[in-house]
Amino acid sequence: VQTPTLAMVCRRYIENRDFSSVPYWKLSVAAEKEGVSLKAVSSSAFDNEADAQSALAMLREQSRLTVTSVAKKVGHTSPPLLFDLTSLQKEANRKHGFSADKTLSIAQSLYEKKITTYPRTGSRYISEDVFEEVPTLLGKIGTALPTPLNRHSVDNGKVTDHHAIIPTGETTSGLSTDETTIYQMVVHRFIEAFSPNSEEERMQAELTDGTNTFIWKACRSISLGWKAVQHSTGTNDEKGKEEEEQTLSVLPNLIENEVLPLLSSEITEHKTKPKPLYTEATLLSAMENAGKEVADAESKRAMAECGIGTPATRANIIETLILRDYIRREKKTVVPTEKGLAVYEIVKDKRIANAEMTGSWELTLAAIEAGQMPPEKFAQGINSYVETICEELLALAPQVQKSYPTYRCPKCGNESVGIYAKIAKCRHEGCDFHIFREICGTFLSEDNIRDLITTGRTPILKGLTSKAGKKFNARLVLGEDHTTAFEFEGKKGKARGR
Question: Containing domain of residue 412, as a range?
C-alpha cells in the first residue's frame, strides 16, 4: 500500500511541476434589472487578447444585452453524512491543519474517555436502533431539532462492523484544546445530519450582445435548514460551485427576449491551472477512491470499497512514508522527497505502483470474508503477482544503485555536493560545506539549492518568517566564506550562520 500511495503523490507533483500555464481572456459584463446588478461572464474564451479587445469594442457599441433564456428551480440539499474516520480526518485537515495521524490519535482518546463512539470505522451511517437514541443524545448535548428528524444518515444496510462516529452524551470536562476541537466537529456534524434539508431557489439566464453569450447565475435561500448549524453556506464543494453564483435576497423577474442596458464591461485575464498538489485531505480522498478521479456520490461509495488501506490504516501509511523520507509535508501540501522521486522513477510503470490493483485486493478480501470467493483463488493470484513483481524488481537492481545527482562544491571544488531530505552537504573528506534546507520556516527546493550552489543566489523566496513571527521576502545568497545571507530588494541582508 505504501508504493501506490507514493506513486500518486509523485505523479501529482510531477504533473504540477511540469504544467505549462496558458493564458486566455473572457468578457465580463454587468446589467441591471429591478435594482439588481446582474454580473455575467462570457461562456467562451479568447485565445489571444487582441480578439478579446475587438469583441469588447463591439460589445460597447451595442451597449445592451438581450435575455435569450431564463431557468428557475427550487431545490433541496441534504445535510452531510455523519463522520467516518477518513471524512473526519479530511475535514480536520482542511479546517484546522491536523494531520491524519493526529486526528486519529485524538479520536481514539475521545473514545477511550467514552465521549465519542469507536473511531476506526468506515461507515457514515447509523442503524435504526441507534437512530431511536438520537433524540436522547440531542437532549444531552443541549440541542432541540424539529421533528421528524432527518433520516439521511440512517441505513441498516450501509452500517459495517461499526456505525458512524457520534457523541455519546457523556460530560466533556478536562478535554485538551485539540480534543475539544475534534469533539465539537463531531457534535456539529451530528446536529447537522439530523437537521432539515436546506431549500434554495436558483436562477440561470443567458444574455447576448448578438455575438457573444453570457451566463448569469444567482441563488436565493428559502430555508437554511442544516446550514444554520454553523452559520455556514455549505460544504467546501458547494462553496466552490457557489463562487460563480450571486447570492441575492430577491431574484429579479427576468423575461426572455427583454433588453437590458449594459452598465459596464471589461476583459478579464485567466490562466489554465494544473491539478493542485495533494494536501492530506485530498490524499486521503485519493487513497479512499484508489486514485481515481470520482465525481458522483454513488461511484465514490463503490470505489470506497476497494481503496488503498482502510480508515484505520491510511494515516499510518502516510506517516510511514514520511518517516522513511519518501514524502514530506510542505506547508499544507504533501510532496515527494528526492528519494521518493527516485523510487517512483524506477517503479512507476510496474504493477507494484498500481493503486487500482491494490484496491481490488481489498475488494477481493471483503468477498472472501463474506463467503463469496474461495481464499485459494486469491492465494493463487497473489503467488503469481509476487513472482512477477520479484522478476521486475530484480531486473531493475542495477538502476537502484544509481546515485543521486551531485553538484560542484563551491568550497572545495569537487563534484560532491548531494541534496538530502533536510540538508545539502559536501561528501568530500575534509570539507564541511553544508546548507540546511529549512530556513525561516521555508523549505528550499532542489532548484533553490542548485541555484544557490551554482550561481550564488536563489530567486526571491516568499513567506519567510522572522524570529519575531513576521513574514518577509528575500533572496538567499552565498558569501565568500560560503555561509548564507539574505539579500533584500535594493540592499543586502546580514549573513546568517549555519
Answer: 406-487
Looking at the structure, tell me whether residues 74 and 216 fall in a common domain. Answer: yes
Angle at 126 between CA 136 and CA 148, to 5 degrees: 55
Looking at the fold, whether 436 and 367 belong to one and the same domain comes out as no
**Beta strand ranges found along 306-446 (DSSP E):** 327-330, 333-336, 406-408, 415-419, 423-426, 434-436, 438-439, 442-443
| pTM as predicted | 0.70
Q: How many domains are contained in the chain?
A: 4
190: cell is 451530528
- Residue spans of beta strands (DSSP E) within 167-277: 198-208, 213-223, 246-247, 259-271
Give the CATH number for residue 350: 1.10.460.10
Give the CATH number for residue 254.
2.70.20.10
CB–CB of 411/431 below 8 Å?
yes
3-state secondary structure of 375: helix
Same domain, 204 and 69: yes
Query: Phi and psi of 203, rounded to 5°?
Result: -140, 140
Q: Which three cell numbers stand for residue 477?
A: 545568497
Task: Categorize the per-residue pLDDT at 253 as very low, low, confident or very high, splitting at 50, 70 and 90.
Answer: very high
State yes or no: pLDDT of 298 exceeds 50: no
